[in-house]
Amino acid sequence: MPDSAFLKISSAKLEYAFLKAGFSQSTTAFEIDVHKSTVSREIRRNLGKKGYRLNQAHVIAITRHHRADKFVKMTHQLLAIIGNLIRNDYSPQHISDALKRNHRIRISHETIYQHILSDKTTGGILYQHLRGSNRIRKKRYGSQSLRGQIPGRVSIDSSSTPFSLETSFSDSA
To answer: Quick one: 52 and 90 in the same domain?
Structure first.
């Protein structure tokens, strides 16, 4: 049986038909191929004053879904607020915290980064306001890497003074 958080419309119609015909919740769950707790939860969540009704249950479910904190989508108004804050050099983490604190909007900083990336791919300049994007990096292609090299070093093989472990440890003691 597939586990689902809520019933699809076709399953809800079948559930309504089975319950209306007088079948138990367990039988209804078996017939529409969901767990019996899913049917019980659907009825408990969407029960109206006159019992469980399909259209009324659908309206209640959609209302509950829109009212949830996680339902917030990237609206044009929200994108404008985020764009202004980015242009004022706020980091996506700060923007996420500010929206949560001031506007009671919960949005992940990752979602803001995704918006900045999509803006960049469409030719926008929001990415230039991120803190790490202004670094100037030296181009190293076409030349040998000199990173980690000691300038003017002399190889131990070409050293004029002979060196051995026995003499160096005995001399220092």
So the answer is: no
Whether residue 124 lies inside any domain: the answer is yes
171 falls within a domain: no
Residue with tokens 């700060």: 94
Q: Are residues 37 and 53 in the same domain?
A: yes
**Which amino acid, 87?**
R
Cβ count near 146 (within 10 Å):
8
62-104 pLDDT per residue, tens: 888 777 766 667 888 999 999 999 999 999 999 999 999 998 8
The alpha carbon of 105 is separated from its chain's Cα centroid by a whole number of angstroms, namely: 15
Taking the C-alpha atoms of residue 27 and residue 92, their distance in angstroms, rounded to an integer, is: 50
Determine the average pLDDT of the residues in 100-128: 91
- Proportion of the chain above pLDDT 90, given as a percent: 25
Domain for residue 24, yes or no? Answer: yes
Instruction: For residue 137, give Cα distances in angstroms to 62, 86, 129, 132.
Output: 51, 23, 17, 11
